[in-house]
Amino acid sequence: MEDANSSIGRIEQAAVLDTVVPMRWRGVAPDVLLAASGVALDLLMSGKAGAGAAPDWLVPVFAVLVGAPMAFVRRRPVHVSLYLAALLLFTDQIEAFTSNTAQILLCVAIGATGYLRGWLATLVAVVPGALATGLNIADPGTGFTGAAWVYSVGIPLLPALVGRYLRGPAGRLKEPEVTPDVLLAGAGVAVAVLGTWPMWHTSEQPAWVIVSFVVVAGLALGVARRLPAVVFLVEGALLLLSNQAFSAATSTVHVLLLISVGVFAMRVASWFWNLAVYVAASFLASLVVVGSEGTVTGLKVGLMLVVVATPIAIGRYAGARQSAAEAERLRVRESERLAIAQLRADQLAERERIAREVHDIVAHHVGAMVLRAGAARYAAPDGPVADALADIKETGHQVLEDLRGLLDVLRDPGGDAALLADPADVVTESAERMIAAGLLVDLDVDPALGEAPLVARASAARIVQEGLTNVLKHAGPGTAVRVGLAAGDGELLVEVSNGRPPTVREPLPSSGQGLAGMRERAKALGGTLSAGPDGGGWRLSVTLPYPKTKVTT
Q1: What angle is formed at CA 435 by the lines to CA 432 and CA 437, rounded to 5 degrees?
Q2: Span 218-239, pLDDT tens digits
Q3: Residue 129 gets which letter from DSSP?
């Protein structure tokens, strides 16, 4: 029973572990990476341009001041947002290029606030961020237009809404972990930054505007698994916008568009919609591949078709693998469920066999009691003693009738009736049968074995039978086996041990139920079973306790 229960426990534990559990980033490593990324971003943005009106030696100092606080953005996102808003105002007043980095990291901190905190904390981060963004946009001596107000509010509000969205419907996916989304967003930002940073200070627009544009395009990939169609449309719109206003970022946004196409193909199995996305992406790609001069060649068209078809093919392949993996997980869970059901059925079957044997033993003793009471009734004179003996006889007959009815229900018509015989004879017969099969059996039976109850002796006989069968199955003919049965001090001891097999044998398939059945028998009587390798062979030891019979005089 213990082996069966432990097997069920292992199977159920594997089933629980097989369910998808969101992986969370713990420790200080993510904080260090965030801080290092913030510092590196500012060095990329300000390394060539310098510190503006401030001395150039302040470039690394400003890089640390703006990037290092990102180490606390996971734990104190509101505080980091307020700090970056203040730093944005300061660097904007002294005309330091670090203000571009502060503007970008401020949006990141606001997005983290929306994801990690409630609406009130998000509002506390958005309002100062909007004010600082508005002052950063405003040029001295220039009126603040309506468009500037829209940008001032929209730039910090967008990451806040994205953070709130990721906080809410993240459970809609079958796999609710956000790590793939974070990796997609990080990869998108990396592609956007590395693909455009040499042109940040050569464009007509301010550097932070271009950086914000490409960073938003990269961050959009973070929700591509959850809203693949929406992200594709967003990337397509950004590609059109970059082609008109930010030509330096067109190639980079095109790469992000192709990534969104691949994610769409992976998440959406419909070939109709994949074809529609392919046509739309091909049209958008023509703006980049064909070029604005209007020259169309077969090479450009073929290149365009291949470029768009590649992410769709990769996405469909990944989607098919994902579907196959999900089907395999379902199959494994079903197999585990069937295995658990089979183990429990085997337990019930073993208990049923034990129950039948107990009924046989009880019937044997009750039958003997009835015969003795009947014989004593004829020898005893009439009177109370004779009446009591007659009552015992009649009650015994009724018990036997009830037991026969129960046995008709419980006993398998094709079952083995060997346990109705004396257990000592069953052990001897089993040993002789194994000797005929080729085992070298040394049988040692304690003469005091008959003092143990019949239930314990019957269970010991079954254990010996199963133990010898296992030796023949796994060790093979020619193996020396010692079988010992001893009784004393209220315990019946059973030992089946074999030496090293005479020849090397291939492991035979085993259901594993033999040992479980023996444990079930031992546990039913309050006993213990131990089994394991022993000097190249195998040793099975069972202890079956039984109450001592008090001898009265």
Answers
A1: 115
A2: 888 887 887 888 888 888 888 8
A3: H
